[in-house]
């Protein structure tokens, strides 16, 4: 068999499982007919497969590589809407209609696609109508889910590129390969091993060509779910091939060294073909005993990276976290705002930890943002809970303003609580990018009238902005604009967490009220009547109306509450602890609220089906995580 014939057979063999996965139940004859009807198209980085607005004449199925889909808006600007990994189909509607292409598809890197044009499709349908039925079902499914958020396909080819001295990239590659083995078949190669694998390098003195090495890499991709390519530390053909063949490039940097641009970055990454850029993740390596990274913005601001990860390579837990992020299996925890009720987040986090559910990314709004930042510091649970409990021993909203021109509360105590917590957990003022776990918080931009996602910037200032309840707490100035409580727009930002790179599962803790409390009076009482009523024992009070601060807090999140069901649909595991008996400003009930969150989490986990527990890696509900009987619920202080 000739080399071309062998390559053709390999292509046909690769196509078969993708056809079977796209068209379940496809018979052998139909499978062979499609294999005989397709043409093979090779694309280089930046090559355009189809252009929006041009006539459609074929459908394509990706065999190897990665494609990116862009849609042009009315203003002429293009935005990326999705990426296509191997085994995904695009352009199939053109086989039935003469409508122009609805998007532009570009190859991010070297890719191979199987092309089925209209003429061959009609011939195929004439011989086997089942092909049309199978494809029609695929189109219907695509149309029904066209507005669903689709996760980015996990990268297959990854380059490990050391950009500082002293990085042991080979040892790192081995450890990451072992960690990725949990999610699929993984291997790592370097220039020497690829040259050895090249069949054309046998019995000859010269080195294999770039094409011959790319064939070896393509074969490895066909047999593995993850291929890690260790690049050299100088610009050469192998390093350039690695970058050009990558779905994602991991820039490995010793964070204790100067953040200079490496010569390989300058040669191959700063001026690449437009719309062909693979993702670039900056992996910042820290000593094992580092309490918290400091000053990482100097690394990130110098280069156009897609994201970054702070890592202690000596810790298996950190390597495992990187593997989950890279394979798109990371777990994100999103925490809603709710004043003092936000202490319940700590109880739920504690139970998740007991069950072995690792949290890789965390984010939230208002009080949820504060608790999320504490979790992202990656300290042990007793220390974290102890620091938060100590910080909130003072009433953070008790410093009322004598001249409430901007807010009812001065905000000095809130600032003190936030800054002392950050110092105790993280060692001093830090930027959001300095946290160990991926993090974001939501604030509302008063100046622009929009939601803002804070992924970088001073952590303390961002937290104060996220919790600045309009009217109750003073707004925060950031970059010349005013910001206030994020709950105004998005109090339960599960959608933001769902969109974070690497996150495959989302756990949400919502603090919205479960039911509506009805009032037993027709008109609002006067201020004097409310004051006198509050002097009575709690059970004998008639006017159960919120305080002014609590009222302002609730009003500020009404729009967010209206999105509650929509946000819940973005979660894979949902918690909504019953906290109606706790006030928004009852900071002195820390322990009781934490316990209520703990008890609720145990109840939710115990109610999961066996299949759901397996999906979360929970073998069974341990005795200490079993739901408590109703009589054992924590008493109301």
Keywords:
single chain; 637 residues; alpha/beta; 8-stranded mixed sheet; 6-stranded parallel sheet; 24 helices; disordered C terminus
Instruction: Bin the strand percentage.
Output: 15-25%
SS-derived structural category: alpha/beta
Please give the count of helices: 24
Terminal-residue CA separation = 82 Å
List the topology elements.
Elements: H1 3-22, H2 28-37, E1 39-43, E2 48-50, E3 58-64, E4 67-72, E5 78-84, E6 89-90, E7 104-107, E8 111-117, H3 118-127, H4 130-144, E9 157-162, H5 169-180, E10 186-189, H6 191-197, H7 210-223, E11 226-230, H8 237-244, E12 248-254, H9 263-268, E13 279-285, H10 297-300, E14 307-311, H11 316-326, E15 330-335, H12 344-354, E16 361-365, H13 367-376, H14 381-391, H15 412-426, E17 438-445, E18 450-454, H16 459-466, E19 476-478, E20 481-485, H17 487-490, H18 494-498, E21 503-509, H19 527-534, H20 548-556, H21 558-562, H22 564-568, E22 573-575, H23 590-606, H24 610-615
Parallel strand pairs: 9-11, 9-12, 10-11, 12-13, 13-14, 15-16, 15-21, 16-17, 21-22
Antiparallel strand pairs: 1-8, 2-7, 3-6, 3-8, 4-5, 4-7, 17-18, 17-20, 19-20
Helix pairs in contact: 5-11, 12-23, 14-15, 15-16
Describe the structure.
- Mean pLDDT is 86; it is low at 623-637.
- The relative contact order is 0.08.
- With 637 residues, the protein is α/β, with parallel strands linked by helices.
- It is globular, with a radius of gyration of 28 Å.
- Strands 15, 16, 17, 18, 19, 20, 21 and 22 form an eight-stranded mixed β-sheet that branches. It has a six-stranded parallel β-sheet with strand order 10-11-9-12-13-14, with helices on both faces. It has a four-stranded antiparallel β-sheet with strand order 1-8-3-6.
- Helix 14 packs antiparallel against helix 15.
- The chain is built from 24 helices and 22 strands.
- Strand 4 (67-72) and strand 5 (78-84) form a beta hairpin.
């Amino acid at each position: 068999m000739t080399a071309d014939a062998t390559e053709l057979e390999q292509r046909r063999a690769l196509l078969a499982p993708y056809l079977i996965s796209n068209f379940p139940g496809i018979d052998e004859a139909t499978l062979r007919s499609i294999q005989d009807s397709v043409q093979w198209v090779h694309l280089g980085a930046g090559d355009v497969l189809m252009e929006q607005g041009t006539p459609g004449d074929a459908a394509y199925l990706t065999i190897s590589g990665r494609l990116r889909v862009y849609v042009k808006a009315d203003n002429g600007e293009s935005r990326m809407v999705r990426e296509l990994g191997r085994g995904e189909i695009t352009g199939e509607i053109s086989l039935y209609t003469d409508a122009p292409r609805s998007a532009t598809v570009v190859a991010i890197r070297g890719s191979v696609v199987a092309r089925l044009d209209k003429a061959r499709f009609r011939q195929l349908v004439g011989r086997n109508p089942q092909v049309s039925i199978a494809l029609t079902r695929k189109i219907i499914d695509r149309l029904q889910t066209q507005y669903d958020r689709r996760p980015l396909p996990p990268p297959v080819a990854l380059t490990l590129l050391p950009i500082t001295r002293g990085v042991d990239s080979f040892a790192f590659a081995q450890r990451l390969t072992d960690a990725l083995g949990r999610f699929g078949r993984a291997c790592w190669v370097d220039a020497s091993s690829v040259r050895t694998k090249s069949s054309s390098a046998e019995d000859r003195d010269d080195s294999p060509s770039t094409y011959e090495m790319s064939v070896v890499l393509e074969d490895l991709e066909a047999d593995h779910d993850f291929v890690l390519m260790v690049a050299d530390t100088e610009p050469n053909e192998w390093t350039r091939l690695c970058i050009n063949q990558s779905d994602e490039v991991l820039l490995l940097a010793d964070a204790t060294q100067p953040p200079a641009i490496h010569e390989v970055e300058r040669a191959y990454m700063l001026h690449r073909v437009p719309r062909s850029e693979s993702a670039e993740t900056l992996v910042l390596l820290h000593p094992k005993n580092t309490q918290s990274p400091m000053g990482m913005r100097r690394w990130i601001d110098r280069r156009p990276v897609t994201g970054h990860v702070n890592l202690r390579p000596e810790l298996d837990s950190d390597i495992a976290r990187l593997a989950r992020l890279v394979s798109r299996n990371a777990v994100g925890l999103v925490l809603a705002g709710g004043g003092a009720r936000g202490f319940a987040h700590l109880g739920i986090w504690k139970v998740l930890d007991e069950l072995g559910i690792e949290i890789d990314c965390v984010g939230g709004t208002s009080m949820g943002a504060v608790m999320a930042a504490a979790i992202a510091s990656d300290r042990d649970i007793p220390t974290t809970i102890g620091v938060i409990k100590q910080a909130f021993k003072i009433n953070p909203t008790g410093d009322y303003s004598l001249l409430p021109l901007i807010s009812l509360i001065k905000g000095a105590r809130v600032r003190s609580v936030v800054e002392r917590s950050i110092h105790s957990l993280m060692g001093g003022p830090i930027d959001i990018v300095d946290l160990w776990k991926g993090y974001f918080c939501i604030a509302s931009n008063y100046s622009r009238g929009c939601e803002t996602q804070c992924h970088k910037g001073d952590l303390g200032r961002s937290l104060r902005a996220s919790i600045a309840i309009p009217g109750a707490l003073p707004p925060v100035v950031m970059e010349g604009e005013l910001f206030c409580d994020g709950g105004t727009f998005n109090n339960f930002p599960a959608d933001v967490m769902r969109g974070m790179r690497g996150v495959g599962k989302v756990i949400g803790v919502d603090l919205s009220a479960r039911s509506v409390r009805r009032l037993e009076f027709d008109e609002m009482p006067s201020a004097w009547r409310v004051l006198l009523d509050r002097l009575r024992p709690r059970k004998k009070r008639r006017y159960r109306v919120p305080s002014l601060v609590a009222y302002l807090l609730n009003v500020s999140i009404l729009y967010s509450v209206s999105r509650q069901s929509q946000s819940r649909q973005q979660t894979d595991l949902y918690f909504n602890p019953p906290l109606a008996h706790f006030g928004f400003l009852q900071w002195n009930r820390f322990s009781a609220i934490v316990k209520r969150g703990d008890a609720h989490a145990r109840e939710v986990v115990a109610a999961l089906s066996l299949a759901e527990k397996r999906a979360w890696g929970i073998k069974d509900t341990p005795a200490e995580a079993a739901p408590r009987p109703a009589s054992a619920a924590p008493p109301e202080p």
